[in-house]
């Protein structure tokens, strides 16, 4: 047992040195998971546990997406480890929100998309939200609207308007994801956006953008000239396309 402990200690020391020298992203999936398991397993052989978890759930992301109950079906995974792994996606999303708040403004579409991708990370179904922004493009509220299915989320206009008013600002960004598709708007997306622009315009709220996400890409209706503008004075919908 003493010899095994020395072997594990030496292995962990080498792993930590690799992370310090080359970064966490240099690790293979089972090695990255092994490092996470150090948090709640001071003495166990986490290498074997990491391999068994990935074999059971498919990949690194699959492990973190698994329920605590399912995680504990793997030998050696107790309640503390299951809880830690299951919380990791939420921790990452919370970090992204705090980082944005610390750094301030989301003035560019790229900054908006980076922030939103963090919020939607790991989502297996379509979801929709509003970001309420102040005049300096700082996030004042993050308002989740609805969860849908793997390929569809339907929004009631009144719910979008209510969320925008709750946000307390005069400009918002709408976002939804396509977890199993491409970052392009459907006909339904374009029509729904027009209806939302009109409804928000009537309560003097500007839809700054509608961004569609996948895990790695985004589509900005504003940048791609697909975002209409409602002229409250004339009641006309101005379309750049």
Structural description of this entry:
- By secondary structure, this protein is of the alpha+beta class.
- The chain is 48% helix and 17% strand.
- A hairpin with a 4-residue loop joins strand 4 (206-213) and strand 5.
- Helix 6 (79-103) packs antiparallel against helix 7 (109-120).
- It is elongated.
- 26% of the residues are buried.
Main attributes?
five-stranded mixed β-sheet, UPF0758, 2 domains, elongated, 241 residues, 9 helices, metal ion binding, Cytidine Deaminase, domain 2, DNA polymerase, domain 1, metal-binding, two-stranded antiparallel sheet, alpha+beta
CATH architectural name of the largest domain: 3-Layer(aba) Sandwich
Helix content: 40-55%
CATH domain class name of the largest domain: Alpha Beta
Task: Give a quick account of the main beta sheet: strands, pairing sense, barrel closure.
Answer: 5 strands, mixed
Kindly report the name of the CATH homologous superfamily of the largest domain: Cytidine Deaminase, domain 2
Shape: elongated
Distance between the termini: 71 Å
How many structural domains in the coordinates? 2
How many β-strand runs? 7
Structural class label: alpha+beta
The run of helices and strands is HHHHHHHEEHEHEEEE
Number of helices: 9
Q: What do the pLDDT scores average to? A: 88
Rg, alpha carbons: 22 Å
Strand content: 15-25%
